[in-house]
Amino acid sequence: MLNIALFGPPGAGKGTQSEFIIKEYNLCYISTGDLLRKEIAEGTRLGQEAESIIAAGQLVSDEIIVQLIEKTIVTNPYSHGFLFDGFPRTYMQAYILEGLMIQHNSSLNCLINLDVDQDLTVRRLLERGKSSGRSDDNETVIKKRLQEYNEKTHPVLEFYREKGILRNVDGNKSIDDVTGQIKDILKEEMKHSLYNVVLF
Ligand code: AP5
Q1: Which of 96, 111, 132, 150 could cysteine-pair with 160, CB 3.0–4.6 Å?
Q2: How far is the CA of 31 from the centre of ligand 1 (A)?
């Protein structure tokens, strides 16, 4: 199994890069942002709870995220592995992910951090906002999303650095260049996991 998490500030390119990874490695894609927007569109209780929080650019509670993730993992017992986009975003979520991986007799291979200058991510999101229809792609909310990222999410990198599975990518480059950097990382990961299989 190959389990990967894509990490980075709003507009870093997590969704963009996820597209090629899931195609190439046939992974089960779990984007907590997409899952939340689906709950909102369907008008579920969970969606109603999350809607105003997302519109304000804040992180929704860890409890809501756990419910979403568990529901998705249970309905997608996927043998090739998982690609997490935008999860984990807090220390609590990092611990929850560890527990879930253990339940699946597995572990996270690597957390890929898309390192991007924040003035560039603001420009990308304002541009995307013209056509995305996302209520959180406007200047005021983008500022709040970045503040949440800097205060609550960015510190989680330390957890993965200590575990030795943090991989940094220069996300300021073109989409193709970033894809190339991620491909190199995943090639290495695949080599390691094959090696582990042989050892077993
Ligand atoms: P979520 O949907 O996860 O949004 P986000 O993290 O703010 O990330 P984005 O989707 O905005 O950006 P991205 O990194 O995917 O960039 P993209 O590829 O689209 O979360 C939304 C909200 O849900 C959160 O604010 C929070 O409230 C809640 N939430 C979600 N998960 C949560 C969790 N785990 N815990 C608590 N709350 C949670 O690219 C952006 C644009 O840039 C695109 O137009 C793209 O074409 C362009 N682009 C991408 N890469 C490049 C490049 N290299 N060069 C030029 N342009 C590029």
Answers
A1: 111
A2: 10
Name, in order, each residue with C-beta under 8 angstroms of 150's C-beta and a sequence gap of 6 or more.
9
In the predicted model, is pLDDT for residue 196 greater than 70?
A: no
In the 3-class helix/strand/coil scheme, how is 156-200 assigned residue by residue? HHHHHHHHCCEEEEECCCCHHHHHHHHHHHHHHHHHHHHHHHHHC
What is the token pair recorded at 25?
């490695």
Enumerate residues lining ligand 1, CB below 6 A: 8, 10-16, 32-33, 36, 53-54, 57-60, 65, 86-87, 89, 93, 124-125, 128, 136, 145, 174-175, 178
User: Over 80: is that where the pLDDT of 79 sits?
Assistant: no
Domain ranges of the chain: 4-193
Model ipTM over 0.90: yes
Whose CA is closest to 18, among 175, 190, 188?
A: 175
155 marked as binding residue: no
Query: Residue 197 has what pLDDT?
Result: 45
Residue 200 pLDDT greater than 70, yes or no: no
Distance (angstroms) between ligand 1 centre and the Cα of 196 equals 33
How is domain 4-193 classified at the architecture level of CATH? 3-Layer(aba) Sandwich (3.40)
